[in-house]
Amino acid sequence: MTICTALLVTSVELTELTRTELCRRLSELLPINQSDVSTSFCSNAYVAIGQVKPDLRSRVAATDVVRISRTIDAPIRFVYGWCTDLREDDYKISGSKSRRRILEKTGQRVIYTTREKGAKSVGAASVVTLHPPNTWHVDSIGDQRDTVGDYRLTRLCDGRTRLDIVFKVKRKSSAAPGRTQFLRHLNKSWDRYVATLDKDYEKRIESR
Fold first, then answer.
1. Regarding predicted confidence, which is higher, 203 or 8?
2. Is domain 55-206 in CATH 1.10.238.10, yes or no?
């Protein structure tokens, strides 16, 4: 279900796409029936992707695969709810310099755009598809790179949860961070996320 594959188009092509055509492409790729693709979802996806401006610096064609894992001191149900409750102020936890704007948030998917702090244009548009109780998937179309990510939770015998993350990153610009830099950022962000998640679960247990 790689939305990125079907929507790797230039800004010129994006302006020529009608909402009907974009919705058709999305409905073919998403793991849901076409009749289930809501008008609001199509509209929000169109708006999000249409805001991404391609990086006009030297073009590159390189794909990196990045994997990380974390063990979390909380049960799988709590972890899934916490991780998929995407919010605009998540940067306060991760320390990211980018800012997220959520366009749609339901029990099945989340659509949002990402903009670097101080930037005039949107850097990426993302569609997160939820598959409870233990997986979710993200397709992100960016100005410098396109990203496909899969998240999977596994219940451990001691009650804890293992999180496995796999990203396929297609770099489209020489300005895009390389694999090492991307991995460093990912590890740093998830170290902070897991630390906060563990604390939130401890607070929940203590409040009972």
1. 203
2. no
